[in-house]
Task: inverse folding
DNA sequence: TGATCCATGTAAGGAGTTACATGATTAA
DNA sequence: TTAATCATGTAACTCCTTACATGGATCA
């Protein structure tokens, strides 16, 4: 299970509440790991019981109180231990590919609208990542301004973001390819 | 749930036993959906109870008897119904990306060997897909020999395989990029 | 007045993984 | 004789999703 570890990484980057973690999982963490608030609260509770995180009750004015979580030394060494274990590449799951192969037994052209919709979603996601990159990693900063020491955290965050960008580019290009194929098969199926 | 639907598609392409389905999920279906034999047997039982598949006991000599499953008319219409429902793109889960961001809090260079290993696995998978493509879709066949009617099933299978190829190409290129970044950060972290 | 944000959770159920179990045949 | 292939399953457990639940503050 990597959700614990994803939470540890996020809390090391910046401590926060379960709610804040859920938002980060929607945004920056979302391009390599997803989790809902229900999952996050459950896992945070377990992590607190295991002593991996420390909890601080924070009273707020004008909004509900929150619990701020931060990584404990035990959590840090749990993460270090996990980093040294080999992992296997994830198994891919693309429901859309099941549909594409299934379309052979239905009306192939009937899938065009759905594939176009997916293509648009991936294109939007790509635009969103590119905007984030332009905002957080403008060209000329970070990667090697001559003489300056690189910030490993920043560089690695950018490397992961480039992975998200490459993924969305690949998906839009592949879905274009699929659309060509579906259209070539013609409206008569 | 798409496992049922992935099984329906596979059984429509060719009827077979649970064991055979498990092997297909390891091979050709594996590049867009994975399932173990335990899962497959459980789901096949449910699908048989729901009348989505027909079962035929086949006695064999020299090997254990098997149950051959094929899609019933009810299964076919269940698939058709599902094909017309919109689906959401899958959430991505890359444990390796969690590790890459986590490396900022450990020794970044310590991750190089693990990333190289993943890169090799993706490269091997790519070679495997390319070999399958060369075998099953040699250039000059399929996509448009002038005058011949295209086989939708075949063309769609190829389109999905091209997605697997594009995915592995993207992953190897991205992991090269990550390796550059890790090496640039230097052995001193 | 209604929607969205902040903030936390419970409960139920479905999906997926890991371990265990059996047993014949065939190739190294 | 050891391992792999064929063939089917159960049991326990973990993980993930969906629905439900609360309640104040802020903005349109």
Result:
């Amino acid at each position: 299970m990597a959700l614990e570890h994803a939470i540890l990484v996020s809390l090391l980057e910046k401590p926060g509440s379960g709610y804040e973690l859920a938002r980060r999982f929607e945004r920056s963490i979302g391009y390599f790991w997803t989790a809902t608030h229900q999952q996050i609260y459950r896992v945070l509770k377990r992590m607190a019981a295991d002593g991996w995180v420390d909890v601080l009750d924070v009273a707020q004015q004008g909004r509900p109180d929150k619990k701020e979580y931060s990584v404990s030394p035990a959590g840090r060494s749990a993460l270090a231990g996990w980093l040294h274990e080999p992992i296997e590449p994830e198994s891919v799951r693309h429901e859309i590919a099941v549909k594409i192969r299934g379309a052979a037994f239905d009306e192939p052209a009937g899938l065009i609208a759905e594939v176009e919709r997916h293509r648009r979603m991936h294109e939007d996601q790509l635009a969103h990542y590119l905007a984030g990159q332009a905002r957080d990693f403008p060209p000329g900063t970070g990667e090697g301004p001559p003489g300056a020491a690189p910030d490993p955290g920043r560089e690695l965050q950018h490397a992961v973001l480039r992975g998200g960008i490459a993924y969305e580019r690949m998906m839009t290009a592949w879905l274009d390819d699929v659309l060509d194929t579906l259209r070539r098969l013609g409206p008569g199926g």
Remarks:
- Chain B touches chain A through 73 residues (CB under 8 Å).
- The two ends of chain B are 44 Å apart (CA to CA).
- The CA atoms of residues 57 and 67 of chain B lie 5 Å apart.
